[in-house]
Amino acid sequence: MGSFTFGFNHLTPDFVEGMRINLRGKPEKLVTDGLVQCSYYPNGDRGFGQATIEFRWSSPADAKKDAAVEGARSYDLTGSADVIGVSHDVSTDLYVPCRLSGEPAERSKGVHLHATTSFTVNLGEVHDHGTQDQQMDFVYRMTRRATEVLGCENKPLEKDPVVTPVAGTGTP
To answer: Is the entire prediction scored with pTM above 0.85?
Structure first.
């Protein structure tokens, strides 16, 4: 049995504070580029072959660049062009507009909450789009929880995902 860590329970205040710090700008000597919130190690060790999810802020342009990478499979998850899902063989990314209240409200308008996952546990095992679709569903649900704890006022992921690949994207 593997080991599993998940950070949206007792670490929720740390996550929210870290993401707000990250949005304001990275203070000197404080690394907040990506906050790892969930990790799964199927063999119980922290070596190769894991699944992790982390969150950061990215520009909407980054999402479009990620979707343009050869072999990327893009997703329409909510019917909104602002929510962009992209899956590769061992990574899946979701870009979501998250409008915050208070001091970071203005800065949150120009960026997307970016969930990035690494599924190296699946390295060499992704032979069909079904695995990528499952990974996208997982990332959506984890990101929805992140939008809840961050307090995204626009509630970008309040509905269950409809994992719909964009026609002509990705390679089997």
So the answer is: no
